[in-house]
Amino acid sequence: MGRLKISKVSNKEISRRNILVHPPEPPMHVLFKDPSNSIFIGRTKMLHVPFYWTFQETTNPHIAACGITGSGKSYFIKTFLVRASFVWNSNSLIIDWAGEYKAWVRQTGGKVISLGKGSYLNLLDLGGMKPYNRIKQVMRTLALLTDVDKYPEQKRLTEQAIEKAYVENKFRMDVKEQRDELGKPLTPPTLKDVVRILEEMSSMGTYEFPAELDNAIYRLRQFTRPGEDFFAQQSTVSMDDLTTSGLVDLDLSGLPDETFRALGALAILQFLKERMRMVGWSKKKGIDLIIVLDEAWKIGKDDNSDAVMIIREGRKYNFALFVASQNPTDISEAIFSNVGTTFILKVKFDKFLNYLQNTLNFSNFMRSEIMKFGVGQCAVDMAFAAATSFPSTFLLDKIEGEEPSKEFFLDMESAYEGKEMMDMARSISFLKENMKKRLLGFGLDESRIEEVISLFDKKNRHIDVISFVVLLERYGVARSNITSFLKEVGVDDATIINIFTKADRKKGGLVGGDITQVILEE
Hints:
Elements: H1 11-16, H2 28-31, E1 39-44, E2 50-53, E3 63-66, H3 73-88, E4 91-96, H4 102-107, E5 111-114, H5 131-145, H6 152-168, H7 191-204, H8 210-221, H9 239-243, E6 247-251, H10 258-279, E7 289-294, H11 297-300, H12 306-312, E8 319-325, H13 333-338, E9 341-344, H14 350-360, H15 364-371, E10 378-382, E11 393-399, E12 407-411, E13 427-431, H16 432-441, H17 446-458, E14 462-464, H18 465-474, H19 479-488, H20 493-509, H21 515-521
Parallel strand pairs: 3-8, 3-9, 4-6, 4-7, 5-6, 7-8, 12-14
Antiparallel strand pairs: 1-2, 1-11, 9-10, 10-11, 12-13
């Protein structure tokens, strides 16, 4: 048995001993907020305290998130948006660079608007601004996306042509509300009108710097060519549809390149910023609109971008900008320095960690923990509005998100004949859970059901519809049941007849073969 020994120790020596040390986490009253006015993210790594995110004590409601592919970043964004809709009834707009979110948005009952695939956005819409102010925004956008700032004369010519286009359409340059003598809203000009004005000026042959004029025309013409005039026609996109329709995905993947996608994203941000200014701040709890920018490096990196300008406006309006990227250096340092909250998931390279650590000023201990992250683990950095005596950067054990419903696809191309394919869906989607229920209803046992599910997983969730039908028939599923399922997922009667005809041919060619192996080898 040990002995209890009493000894004299100086105050100086006691001060050196860490008898009780609070881990690097904020206290519970900061982490554990009212669940009816905050969003649950996960539990802290050290003390396992539930962390409910709210912006009430941070400098602003804006968020940045970074993490490599597969770190759980998209999963986190989806979880955050779903919970915000339940807690605050928030609307969410995803400016979707690569079309990554559109299937999920449709699956959750949201709306998808696809620029470049039937939807247009007039770059010269005013969005509640005075024409003079809109011209400044358009020129700032062109400066970000082209080299117009290097050529002052071309810039001047472009500005003058845009102003003349507004005047020709009877707009007054210093007035927000623009209506004709009958009280109807005026129709704004388009970039095609601006190019026409410059071309008319060129055709006169009197301008003293014809090369400058030709280059100004060339710069704008890339946005007005037939088939690429997505921002040079009257708008089919409504700001009301974008901001008050619940969950909305603005799909930019149909636009031809990064410049067009950036142009669309910047224009939307500018219109949204003006709309929020008009609506103003209210005392209602939560966030009216969450705008997600994921992998938008072209507009997130430049300090003059409207993304940065919105971040700097802070608490003025009831909306939040959520900027995310797998490469932190693609996000302006001004964003990391000004957002209220930063979520850091798994980051792979030292140069990215150096950038984050220098910007957010977290400890070497925190850096070493970030390097060891698995999927869903993250560090949270919060910029508190008032001075604090506790750490502003802390660790979460993992993001506790909403389990996503997995979507399966039947590829339909083999079911159609010739030109029919032009007007038909290339694939039809349905939920994994619905598939399992249907197969169970068809009388398949658990092992057969799991075999079907695993085939979808091994084929990247896509199976040709003919092979799928042959597989079900080999398992003893009646054609009447298969017909019922195909109708349920949206296949018409004529196509179903084609499918069964081709399935019979395929079965005739499988002399003793295993259909599951055939599917895997296709």
